[in-house]
């Protein structure tokens, strides 16, 4: 079951406080992977251990979930991983600007976002047009956006929005058969265990 949080409510309109990145990461200028809607952070905890040459940032709108993820990160002593509570559509630009000219962002993942099935609620979906434009602005040439969903219509909407922006090129034709990552989210693991499809695509900033 998905835990719904309305990102348009007043509580989630304030941008997250800008961290002091040199205090967050041991090597702050390693390539940065941002996971939007990171949930419990299990995926990023695995990625940070498997790829120590990268820094990982998880942004999640459910504060209690973020606090749990932070405790796991601290317990594991991972110095290339950080979690923040906030609304990505409000906070992404501010967070990226806080790096100044040395922004290390190289990869963004959006995995199994809340589908908000009702048409009147679809404006609450995470990948809104303004965010797509911000991704194009802050990702360098060759930077990647990786999307995954167990709901084909949601995945297709993300594909259309990225493709229509003009600065992203989709890799390959059709849905990817396998994840490009060596780790899985909780929902990905459950979906695959049930024999259900996952709809995946990669876009590269041109």
Search tags:
206 residues; alpha/beta; Rossmann fold; seven-stranded mixed β-sheet; 7 helices; 33% helix; globular
> What's the assembly state of these chains?
single chain
**Poorly predicted tracts of residues:** none
Q: Percent helix among the residues?
A: 25-40%
What would you say the CATH architecture is? 3-Layer(aba) Sandwich
Secondary-structure element order, N to C: HEHEHEHEHEHEHE
Q: Main sheet?
A: 7 strands, mixed
CATH names the topology as Rossmann fold
Secondary-structure-based class equals alpha/beta
The radius of gyration computed from the alpha-carbon positions, rounded to a whole number of angstroms, is 16 Å
- When the domains are counted, the total is 1
Average of the residue pLDDT scores: 90
Count the E strands. 7
Shape: globular
CATH homologous superfamily - what is it?
A: Vaccinia Virus protein VP39
Topology:
Layout: H1 21-24, E1 32-36, H2 42-50, E2 55-60, H3 63-76, E3 81-85, H4 88-97, E4 105-111, H5 129-138, E5 144-149, H6 152-165, E6 168-170, H7 186-193, E7 199-205
Parallel strand pairs: 1-2, 1-4, 2-3, 4-5
Antiparallel strand pairs: 5-7, 6-7
Helix pairs in contact: 4-5
Task: Write a structural description.
The protein has 206 residues and is α/β, with parallel strands linked by helices. It has a single domain, classed as 3-Layer(aba) Sandwich (Rossmann fold), CATH 3.40.50.150. It contains 7 helices and 7 strands; from the N terminus they run H-E-H-E-H-E-H-E-H-E-H-E-H-E. The protein has a 7-stranded mixed beta sheet with strand order 3-2-1-4-5-7-6, with helices on both faces. Strand 2, helix 3 and strand 3 form a beta-alpha-beta unit. The model has no long low-confidence stretch (mean pLDDT 90).
């Amino acid at each position: 079951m998905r835990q719904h949080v309305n990102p348009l409510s007043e509580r989630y309109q304030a941008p997250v406080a800008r961290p002091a990145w040199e205090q967050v990461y041991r090597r702050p200028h390693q390539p940065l992977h941002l996971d939007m809607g990171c949930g419990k952070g299990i995926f990023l905890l695995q990625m940070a251990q498997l790829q120590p040459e990268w820094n990982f940032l998880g942004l999640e709108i459910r504060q209690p979930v973020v606090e749990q993820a932070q405790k796991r990160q601290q317990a594991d002593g991972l110095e290339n991983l950080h979690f923040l509570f906030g609304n990505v559509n409000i906070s992404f630009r501010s967070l990226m600007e806080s790096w100044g000219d040395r922004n290390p962002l190289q990869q963004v993942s959006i995995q199994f976002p809340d589908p908000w099935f009702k048409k009147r609620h679809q404006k609450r979906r995470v990948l809104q047009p303004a965010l797509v434009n911000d991704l194009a602005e802050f990702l360098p040439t060759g930077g990647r956006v990786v999307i995954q969903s167990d709901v084909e219509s949601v995945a297709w909407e993300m594909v259309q929005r990225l493709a229509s922006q003009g600065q992203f090129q989709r890799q390959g034709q059709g849905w990817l058969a396998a994840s490009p990552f060596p780790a899985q989210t909780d929902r990905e693991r459950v979906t695959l265990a049930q024999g259900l499809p996952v709809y995946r695509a990669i876009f590269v900033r041109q």
